Amino acid sequence: MGEILILPAPLSVERGTGAFDAPRPWGVHAPAMAKDAVASLGDVVRLADRGRAQILFAEVEGDLPPEAYVLTVEAPRVRVEASTREGFLRAASSLRQLLHDGPLPVVRIEDAPRFAWRGLHVDVARHAFPLADLKRFVDAMALQKFNRLHWHLTDDQGWRIEITSWPRLTSVGSRRAESPRRGAREEGDGTPYAAYYTQDDVRELVAYAAVRGISVVPEIDMPGHAQAALAAYPQVGSGAPAEVWTRWGISERLFGVHDKALSFLDDVLEEVAALFPGPFVHLGGDEAPTAEWEVCAHAAERMQAEGVADARALQGWFHRRMAATLARLGKRPVAWDEVLECGAPKETIVMAWRDAAHAQAAARAGHDVVLCPMSHAYFDHYQGPEASEPEAIGGFTDLATVHSFEPLDDTWPAEQAKHLLGVQANLWSEYIHDAEHLEYMAWPRGSALAEVAWSSREARTDGGFEVRVARMMERLEAMGVTHRRIS
Ligand code: ACM
User: Is residue 240 domain-resident?
Assistant: First the structure.
């Protein structure tokens, strides 16, 4: 009889005696709220209104926290209890795993997430990935109970989302003359690159993710990482004209703070807000050198008019101005941890990428925070010896490092811990050229992060991760998902 190898490890598993191979089809009874959960089982079991084996989805009113569920298998019946649509979806992901693994074991599982924000970030600016591949990525995420896909849509090297009111963003901003050569980063490869997602593409992916319980968080990076937009519309910048950048690195080019730039960004955010029904829009805010604003007449004028002391504080003014636009659109801003240093409004969710100290500083200042530190959650790092791995950006973050990540260690005072919404890993794609490589970088490290994000500390450190993750790789293979071998 096989072990129960659900990943992320559930809160509690009570194993009974026996297992059964269910006759087909299964009869399903479910309230409307469980419709998407039922649909998510459609490719692993044949479902019908009647059948000797039954799956019953039962709504438990108000008793279970969001995303929590109870899954009981008693031959030949499966009972799924939850209080929300998301709870049913997370239960279905556990049931999918059991069904994949063989005869259904008699078991009672009680489960609930440790953190509310369980994210993966994908950079499509440096290299974009076809929609079908992003959907497969979402499938792999959903199976492991992730609930946020952070979509990094704009950067110096490309603007990848259609904005109908500013068409040059894609006709110009989605194209670059060349990219760094593979294996020789200082040289160009001489090959033009172009890609973007139409608004129909965006709606398709957002809807696909939504039925799987994943909210897509779009990122429009500002005021830096904006060179592709400035190549399309130099008049919204604060310096000389720019080209879509053909190199990796930190550009000094910034959006302006004059009225033309602000109304352009308002237009962009309006279209973005309409495309993404979720509550969050990520405004970037990282790596914005102030050199351009220090010598820009418009910036000087703005600082004087607004009583802002210097160019760094002006980034705070800029961020507050954009947060006000989002508030009008009913959205909440998310931003990288640099915005702490310039004065971000309290409603900004701070994504701490540099280290946990920045997360705690944000929490101390009253922000909700998401931890995605370079030390444990940068999946563009090497995961094995450099000589035997595909070219990566640098660093070293292997599977064990990710799984050892304790987001809430003893250094967190309770008062600040309540602001920690969750964790995320970031897949920057400077050196990731296609979806197969994206998956290679994501899995199995993403499976380790799924446990950090969902499982209790006790369940995660029960000594069973090695077998759970090995089984998860088999399930991903069955879905056509690539992964790095576990070494
Ligand atoms: C970042 O890695 N610049 C957020």
Answer: yes
Catalytic residues: 155, 225, 287
CA–CA gap between residue 186 and residue 368 (Å, rounded) = 39
Angle between helices 465-478 and 85-101 (to 10 degrees): 90
Domain count, the chain: 2
Residue 116: both structure tokens together: 């509310």
Q: Are residues 165 and 278 in the same domain?
A: yes
**Could you tell which of 156, 219, 336, 338 is best to mutate to test the pocket of ligand 1, judged by most ligand atoms within 8 Å of the CB?**
336
Residue 118's alpha-carbon distances to 126, 307, 444, in angstroms, are 24, 39, 16
Determine the Cα–Cα distance for residues 16 and 218; give it in Å rounded to an integer: 44
DSSP 8-state class, residue 161: B
Measuring CA to CA, how many Å separate 374 from each of 19, 37, 248, 378, 382? 43, 34, 18, 5, 12
Q: How do residues 202-239 score in pLDDT, each as one tens digit?
A: 999 999 999 999 999 999 999 999 999 999 999 999 98
CA angle 144, 147, 153 (to 5 degrees): 115
Residue type, 125: A
Beta strands in 367-475 (DSSP E): 369-371, 381-382, 394-396, 420-427
Residue 74 in this model has a pLDDT that exceeds 60: yes
Torsion of CA 480, 159, 332, 139, to 10 degrees: -10
Pocket of ligand 1 (CB under 6 A): 286-287, 336, 353
Query: Is 5 part of any domain?
Result: no
> Distance between alpha carbon 35 and the CA centroid of its chain, in Å?
24
Instruction: Give yes or no for a contact between 111 and 164, defined as CB atoms under 8 angstroms apart.
Output: no
Domain with 304, as residue range(s), is 117-478
Which of 286, 339, 375, 378 gets mutated to test ligand 1 (max ligand atoms within 8 A of its CB)?
A: 286
* Residue 168 shares a structural domain with residue 260: yes
pLDDT above 90 for 50? no
CA–CA separation, 227 vs 244, rounded Å? 6
**In-domain check, residue 472:** yes
Decide: helix, strand or coil at residue 381.
strand
**CATH number of the domain residue 342 falls in:** 3.20.20.80
| Ligand 1 centre distance from Cα of residue 383 (Å) | 19
Residue 72 confidence class, pLDDT cut points 50, 70, 90:
very high
Which residue's CA is the closest to the ligand 1 atom numbered 3?
286
Q: Are 396 and 382 in contact (CB under 8 A)?
A: yes
Whether 486 is covered by a domain: the verdict is no
What pTM was estimated for this model as a whole?
Answer: 0.98
* Per-residue pLDDT reduced to its tens digit, 94-142: 999 999 999 999 999 999 999 999 999 999 999 999 999 999 999 999 9
